[in-house]
Write a structure and sequence with these properties.
This protein is an alpha/beta fold. 31% of the residues lie in helices and 29% in strands. It has helices at residues 16-32, 102-118, 183-187, 193-221, and strands spanning 6-14, 38-45, 48-51, 70-72, 80-82, 86-92, 125-127, 130-135, 138-148, 151-159, 179-180. Helix 2 packs across helix 4. Mean pLDDT is 88; it is low at 216-222.
Length: 222
């Protein structure tokens, strides 16, 4: 995949509402122009909680007690926290180019993060029946996506450094007694989100071709 087909942007620290509006705008433009490049937005958020499309709000532990704003958004999954020290990755990808397989896309996100964390000598894994990335029984990355007309939005939250205490105000991703961890906690090394974002960009460019490989194979077999 060429650089023209994939645009990766580092946006710094921005409010959740601004990032959501930007995603909506890009998705709308990609719907109008099927030749528009796929994009990955990399950023940090000011402290915020989000929850996906579900009538079950029990993971919020009482919405009125949350110390930061809450957004209900068009992704799957229960409540999670985003804030400083966390690398947010929002791939806006046309899955019509990738075989229109949402399950495969989720596993691709997980595997991309697992291979990325190996560069920090962190042995991360998937867990059967659970979306996200784990180090033993500790969760290091959360994943929640939305899809409109086979174009993805939202994505992953990778804990890099900083305070994980705000997770205690919710049941993260609806999983009881989950322990959250970060690259900094696992390695004992001081890291910045911007440096991790730059390193992730290289991995994403390598891995995006794998996501499209099945589609290309199908085209060749016709």
């Amino acid at each position: 995949m060429s650089d023209v087909d994939l645009r990766i942007s580092w946006l710094g620290r921005i409010e959740f509402a601004d990032a959501l509006a930007l995603q909506e705008d890009i998705v709308a433009k990609k719907r109008e122009d099927c030749a528009a490049p796929d994009e990955i937005l990399l950023l940090e958020h000011e402290p915020v909680y989000t929850i996906g499309r579900t009538p079950d709000k029990s993971s919020l532990l009482g919405e009125r007690n949350l110390p930061h704003p809450l957004f209900a958004i068009n992704r799957g999954g229960q409540a999670t926290y985003h804030g400083p020290g966390q690398l947010m990755g929002y791939p806006i990808v046309d899955l019509r180019r990738c075989g229109q397989d949402l399950h495969r896309y989720l596993r691709w996100l997980e595997q991309t993060l697992i291979e990325f964390l190996a560069r920090y000598e962190i042995s991360a894994t998937q867990r059967e029946g659970l979306t996200g990335v784990w180090v033993s029984n500790r969760k290091i990355a959360s994943i929640g996506v939305g899809v409109r007309h086979w174009i993805t939005m939202h994505g992953f939250a990778l804990n890099v450094c900083g305070d994980l205490a705000p997770f205690a105000n919710i049941v993260p991703c609806g999983i009881s007694n989950v322990s959250m961890t970060s690259i900094e906690k696992e390695t004992g090394k001081s890291l910045s989100v911007v440096d991790v974002a730059r390193a992730f960009e290289n991995v994403a460019r390598e891995k995006i071709q794998n996501l499209r490989s099945d589609r290309q194979a199908q085209a060749l077999s016709v």
